[in-house]
Amino acid sequence: MKKRSLIGLLALGVGVSMTLVACGGNKDKDSSKDKGGSDSKYAAAIVTDVGGVDDKSFNQSAWEGLQEWGKENDLERGKGGFDYFQSNTDADYMNNLNNAVKQGYTTVFGVGYKLTDAISEVAGQRQDTNFVIIDSVVEDRDNVASVLFKDQEASFLAGIAAAKTSESKKIGFVGGMEGEVIGRFEAGFLAGVKAVDPSIKVDVVYAEAFDAPEKGQQIAAAMYNNGVDVIFHASGATGNGVFSEAKDIMKNDPSKKVWVIGVDRDQEEEGKYDGGNVTLTSTLKGVGATVKDIANRSKDGKFPGGEVISYGLKEEAIDLTEGNLTEDVQKAVDEYREKIISGDIEVPDKP
Amino acid sequence: MTNSMNGKLKGVIVALLSVILGLVMGAVIMLVSGHDPIAGYSAMIQGSFGDLSYFGETLRQSTPLILTALAFAVASTAGFFNIGIEGQSLLGWLGAVWCALAFPDLPKFILLPACLIVGALFGAFWAGIAGMLKAFFNTSEVIITIMLNYIALYLSNFVIRDIITDGKDATPIIPDAASLRSPGLEQLTDYSRLHYGIIIAVLMCVIVWILMQKTTTGYELRAVGMNPFASQYAGMSTKRNIILAMVISGALAGLGGTMEGLGTFKNIFTQNSLPGLGFNGMAVSLLGGGNPFGIIAAGVLFGALKTGGLLMPTEAGVPEELVDIVIALIIFFVGASYLITYLLDKLPAKKNALKEGGE
Fold it and tell me: So where does this one cross the membrane (chain B) (predicted)?
């Protein structure tokens, strides 16, 4: 008796689920067809790191670049066009790269140094697909182009801007994770500050995360409490917390003046609040433009496989926005920009 | 006998109903948010069992989860809530990779077992700390292990950055002699990362089942879990069993992390946050009813959800967040299994009552 009703209940459960699923199927059957995408021999996709395409920073600008590329080439989002694959954990990189290849994307971008090993492995197995690794180098693979940015140069300019703007002569740096890549930002920034005034103290703190705004906010709160008035963050989505804290401070006490320097893309939008903006300036990293450029080269059959391409101020791939810099500060920044481009100043890439 | 059979059957049905209810609720949410559940779930099935390479990845994903789920099950049989599997598995991962990098020239038949053992020992040591504190000072293992998770996270980041490498955020790749990967399995599954770890995981399930069900040690662990006072009165050492349970649990957790180190990634890198092996393992353990064979099934299901979920955004346009919601819903219904059990019990009773009333 008991057993029978158990099985009955199970059957009921299955039945209900089938009906529901079936109903769902009929209702919007067409929605899946919209995703068909266009038919093209050149299809490009990006695989994000764990930051995701809405990190308001690195991944997002890569995705924006790819979307522009798609628009210019009359491609649609989806197979045969362009798309992104979001990674939720580090274990997903390989799966996503493989999925992108299987779905027929001919050029696959790995956004961020965390994908280095995964790209190296997949590229060895899937030799017909072009891969691009951004912010890192994959060696000995003819179907991988490596893209490096001289982040230290833009960070140097950020350091100039920070040192010239700071009134308290205390400046903060919030890093994502300690290591080679963020080390470039730190080194450039410190050198820039020092070039203006060696007596300025820079408080360097690493959040140990690119996706933890709450940590960013905590660190920023501690720094601002200690009298720091300009913070440069190189920490992806973690930096959103730095912006929140700065905005909170300004909202509660408009007489204080605190600034945030954004990273990788113009973060003017993130600094907006009622009555002003806390974004002093942002370092620009032409991730989007690079993605577009390489996708085009790949389309024209001129994929720079096996090459390491280095983009700096000279190539206009990185820069510092005008943002809310005063005229004097902007002038100083411009002077140093020229010096770096002409080679008079060699910016260190290690802290 | 019939009663226990019925109990087991009920356990299986409750688990199945949890999964079905989770999937149904997931479908409802997809519908409400304007996505096609059939396309969504077909993409998920395609992405987890669609071809050999997907299937290989599904098994690969489930390998560490099976081991961490076993770890949770052993501890909870003995009456502990080991929430520190996360940290124990991370340290196991670190230990195994460290060992492999320290002795790159050893032959495979020595190095691979050594790395596995070191990984398990690292995990066992970390869990042992909580076990000792519990046994001798009666501290709450929940709080201690939660805190130890964070210490493990930052400790491993420190070791990677400042001891194994010189300021890098990932260690070099381990030598082939320490790798669980096999070119044969990779070729068989079209370059998935399936590795020999799955065999180890299944083997550990059998060993744990024998240990818990067929040996005196297992009997004592279960007895302590059911009633520590009664078992002490019966002459069992509660202290010894507490520590033993935590050490076994930690060793299994460490082995789970080792699978990532020697199989999936072949190195270890600094982590943003805890990698989630432990928390997912807890869910797998609950869904599997703490039974080693239930855990294998639940582990494969979780592997399928996680691997297949990756295909849902691009194949069916379902956002990746929804996949996590479906998984969370399944866990929710496992947690709410009391409700399902209650309904199962009440339904026939009510029917009987009605019948009697009618007569």
Answer: 12-32, 63-81, 87-103, 110-129, 135-155, 194-212, 242-265, 277-305, 325-344
The domain segmentation of chain A, as residue ranges, is 44-149+287-311, 152-284+321-342
Q: What was the pLDDT predicted at B166?
A: 87
Amino acid making up residue A102: K
Phi, psi at A273, each rounded to 5°: -150, 170
Distance in angstroms (rounded) separating the CA atoms of residues A72 and A89: 32
Please check whether residue B191 is in contact with residue A125, taking contact to mean a CB–CB distance below 8 angstroms. Answer: yes
For A93, counting Cβ atoms within 10 Å of its Cβ (0-12 exposed, 13-18 middle, 19+ buried), the class is buried
User: Predicted ipTM?
Assistant: 0.83
- Name residues whose C-beta falls within 8 Å of residue A201's C-beta, 6 or more positions apart in sequence: A169, A170, A171
Distance, CA of A343 to CA of A307 (rounded, Å) = 23
- Interval B92-113: pLDDT, tens: 999 999 999 999 999 999 999 9
| Two structure tokens written together for B33 | 């948010």
Partners of A211 on chain B (C-beta within 8 Å) are: 272-273
- pTM (two decimals): 0.83
Residue B329, pLDDT > 90, answer: no
- Whether the Cβ atoms of residue A231 and residue A259 lie closer than 8 Å to each other: yes
Name the β-bridge partners of A272: A277
DSSP character for A237?
A: G
The 3-state DSSP class for residue B124 equals helix
CA neighbours closer than 13 Å in the CB half-sphere of residue A272 = 5
Q: How many CA atoms are closer than 13 Å to the CA of A323, on its beta-carbon side?
A: 34
Residues of B whose CB is below 8 A from A17: 20, 23-24, 27
Segment holding A82, helix H or strand E: strand A82-85
pLDDT band at B358 (very low <50, low <70, confident <90, very high): very low
Does the distance separating the beta carbons of A85 and B314 come in below 8 Å?
Answer: yes
CA dist B79 and B75 (Å) reads 6
pLDDT for A33: 37
Yes or no, beta carbons of B20 and A183 under 8 Å apart? no
- Tell me how far apart the alpha carbons of residues B270 and A263 are, in angstroms, rounded to a whole number: 22
- Binned at pLDDT 50, 70 and 90, residue B273 comes out as confident
Q: A345 with A333: CB under 8 angstroms? A: no
Contact A21 B34 (CB under 8 A): no
| A46: enclosing H helix or E strand | strand A44-47
The residue of chain A with its CA nearest to that of B166 is A179
Residues of chain A whose pLDDT is less than 50? 1-2, 20-39
User: Strand A279-285 to strand A318-320: parallel, antiparallel, or no bridges (unpaired)?
Assistant: antiparallel
How are the residues of chain A apportioned to helix, strand and coil, as percentages rounded to the nearest 5?
Answer: 45, 20, 35
- Please tell me which of the candidates B167, B267, B316 has its beta carbon nearest to residue A32: B316
Q: What is the DSSP string of B246-294?
A: HHHHHHHHHHHHHHIIIIISSS-B--SS--SHHHHHHHHHHHTTT-HHH
Query: Are A179 and B20 within 8 A, CB to CB?
Result: no
Nearest to B252 by CA among B117, B146, B129: B117
pLDDT digits (tens, 9 = 90+) for B230-255: 998 998 888 899 999 999 999 999 99
CATH number, span A44-149+287-311:
3.40.50.2300
Tell me which amino acid residue A301 is: G
- Give residue A37's pLDDT: 43
Question: Alpha-carbon distance B339 to B333, whole Å?
Answer: 9
What residues does each domain of chain B span?
A: 66-295
Domain A152-284+321-342, CATH number (from 3.40.50.2300, 1.10.150.170, 3.90.226.10, 3.40.50.1950): 3.40.50.2300
